[in-house]
Amino acid sequence: MPTNYPSTGIWLEMAELIGCDVPTIKAVFEVEAAGKFYDSKGRPIRRFEPHHYPREHWGELGFNPGNTAPWRASFKLRTSTRRQMFDIAQRIDAEKAAWASSWGAPQIMGFNCALAGYDTALDMVDAFEQSADEQIRAFVNFCISADLDTHLRSQDWYSFARGYNGSGQARRYAGLIETAYRRQSGGAASSPVLRVGSRGQAVHEMQIQLQGLGYEIDADGVFGAGTKRIVEEFQRAEGLTVDGIAGATTLGRIERESGEHMQIDRSERAETSGNQTIDTVVKHGSAVLGSGGAVGLISNVSETNQTIIIGGVVVGAIILAALWLLKKKG
Asked: Disulfide check for 61: which of 27, 85, 100, 259 has CB 3.0–4.6 Å away?
């Protein structure tokens, strides 16, 4: 019997595949998945939807929606009735029965097997039987194939929920994902999503950071076409998905690059300041040693003091020489 729990490394593996953080994957899976990977007999969780089975066999299944919409009639069926219908459907056409059912914790419909990375619905079922990890991989593959991964990278829960669940309850699911994300991340809120039409302090701060990185952008706090073009330029330069949306991944990279740029800039200023100090010491020290001032001083003191002064002059010359070499090396 396969384990009902994912391996410790699967979440990180899938997060790296998409390019997001681990709490993001865990949060969306927590909200969108059924909760269990397998039933008490070690079989992948299954829900047969007879309205997706070929209509010519509805009578054999005992599925007669009448004047009710087929999907609504299917929704009202008892679990035991679904099981009986599935057994009949499987005897008629096993692939079509798998095709008309949702499978595993991610509840992926069999007819979406190609999006999940499989040639047939039965291939997907076979993989789901092997491990919980395979069910998570199928979920991530489906998100990538359906172009939902960009919403995961940006932590745009509304757009993700709209693409995964439809527009009907997108805001409700987006709220559930945000709550799950805060739980998975230890209390941290998800990143803001900045796109064309956004405005305010968050946009202004991003524009300032991009200016610091050398991009020609107006820091007006308005995310317009010009800002979108610069964000796309930054994403392209950093090897990110180029969509012109500044979400968690893009904003995180901008902040990181901005921080590194400021650190390098401070180091360069410190080095310049240090070189200027050395230049000053060398300049004035050379003037003292080479102006004859030391010779004039020596001529007016005792022999013992002359020895002390000469020693000091020699040491000074050595120090200046070392400083000069240090400057040349730098």
From this structure: 85
Residue with tokens 């991530």: 140
Please identify which residue in the block is written with the tokens 């998800």. Answer: 190
Nearest Cα to Cα of residue 209 among 248, 245, 244, 261 = 261
**In this predicted model, what pLDDT tens digit does every residue of 237-294 receive, in sequence order?**
999 888 898 888 898 889 889 887 666 655 555 555 555 544 554 455 544 444 444 4
Residues 201-210 as b/e (b if ≥16 CB within 10 A, e otherwise) read ebbebbbebb
Alpha-helical regions (H) of 93-200: 94-99, 113-116, 121-130, 132-145, 149-154, 157-165, 170-184
**Token pair belonging to 169:** 């309850």
**What is the spatial distance between Cα 47 and Cα 125, in angstroms, rounded to a whole number?**
12
Alpha carbon 100 to its chain centroid, in Å, reads 34
Joined tokens for residue 89: 């459907």
Place of tokens 């020290």: 285
Within 10 Å of residue 233's Cβ, how many Cβ atoms? 16
Could you report the per-residue pLDDT of 126-167, keeping only the tens digit for each?
A: 999 999 999 999 999 999 999 999 899 889 999 999 998 887
CATH code assigned to 191-270: 1.10.101.10
Q: Which of 153, 158, 126 is nearest to 31 (CA)?
A: 158
